[in-house]
Amino acid sequence: MNRKILLGLIVLAVTSSSWGKDESAYDIIKTGEEAMRGKTSISRMKIIVERPRYKRSIVLDAWDESGKDRFFLRIAEPAKDRGVTFLKAGKNMVWQYIPKIGKEIKIEASLMFDSWMGSDFTNDDLVKQSSVIHDYEHTFLPEENPHQYKIQLVPKSGRAVVWSTIIIHVRKDLLLPVREEFYDHKGRLKKKMILEDFRTMDGRVIPVKISMLTVENNRPVSRTILQYQKIQFNRTIPEQIFSKNNLRQ
Predict the structure, then answer these.
(1) Nearest Cα to 232, choosing from 34, 73, 44?
(2) Are 103 and 112 in contact (CB under 8 A)?
(3) Residue 164: what pLDDT?
(4) How far apart are CA 211 and CA 61, in angstroms?
(5) What pLDDT, in 10s, does the model give residues 189-243?
(6) Could you tell me which residues come within 8 angstroms of residue 137 by beta carbon, excluding any fewer than 6 positions away?
(7) Kind of pairing between the strands at 219-233 and 103-106
(8) For 168, how many CA atoms within 13 A lie in the half-sphere containing its CB?
(9) Which H or E element spans position 174?
(10) Euclidean distance between CA atoms 210 and 201, whole angstroms
(11) CA 66, 70, 76, 81 torsion: positive or negative?
(12) Which pTM value belongs to this model?
């Protein structure tokens, strides 16, 4: 065979292999995200904030419509926070209502990565402002565990995200994440999320316990646990749920 033709076939094979690998990494992340969110979801969650000197819990209800980039959250417990609501109605439109002051507050983009209600989750984590599917490039990394994929996410150019790198470990059998690591622009590990207790809820397997750890000098210093108490997928959500008027209901 002509050497030029052979070289061309080798280059084509390597290029095709690399493209398929990256595409598959994207597909795996997309599959896991869609499995855990569905087209819509209605859930009740309990969030437990653990600090060295105190521990508290928050119970909330959430309505998520990922296809239209809409999310609504209302706190049910404790009594002092009851009625606090959050609304995301499209990109860069996030509102919070605080009953104590009787006022809606627009959460600016610069505040999306602040702590949510004093927890280890950020406002962005809870209302899903940034997207691991659309805001990042996805590439496989070598994984020591034969039962998992290891995928690196780096931001696409111009995307307003806080993490310079995210590493996600995914179960091969379920195509669902089990651990996510979040690194700042200096390459320092700052957050770690553990997903566990996989159960069937409303016909699909999801992790019902999600722990977010804040890390300093490679050691966890605090933790917040999110537990799904119930969840329904792909139900029709009334339009008024995602209205600004619903913040005060």
Answers:
(1) 44
(2) no
(3) 93
(4) 18
(5) 999 999 999 999 999 999 999 999 999 999 999 999 999 999 999 999 999 999 9
(6) 22, 153, 154, 155, 156
(7) unpaired
(8) 27
(9) none
(10) 15
(11) positive
(12) 0.85
SS3 state at 248: helix
Smallest CA-to-CA distance from 46 within 178, 230, 193, 232 is with 230
Give kind and range of the element (H or E) at residue 16. Answer: helix 3-37
Element (H, E) at 170: strand 165-171
User: Do 57 and 46 form a contact (C-beta atoms < 8 A)?
Assistant: yes
Q: Which residue has the tokens 């669902």?
A: 176
Q: Encode 36-101 in three state secondary structure.
A: HHCCEEEEEEEEEEECCCCEEEEEEEEEEEHHHCEEEEEEEECHHHCCCEEEEECCCCEEEEECCC
Can you list the domains of the chain with their CATH numbers? 23-248 (2.50.20.10)
Q: How far apart are CA 114 and CA 94, in angstroms?
A: 13
Radius of gyration of the chain (CA): 20
Q: What tokens does 71 get? A: 């999310």
> Which two tokens mark 149?
């994929």
Question: Looking up tokens 């390597």, which residue turns up?
Answer: 14
Q: Of 146, 138, 139, 142, whose CA–CA distance to 171 is shortest?
A: 146
Contact between residue 61 and residue 44 where contact means Cβ atoms under 8 Å apart: yes
Classify the phi-psi angles of 192: left when phi > 0, otherwise alpha if psi is within -120 to 50, otherwise beta.
beta
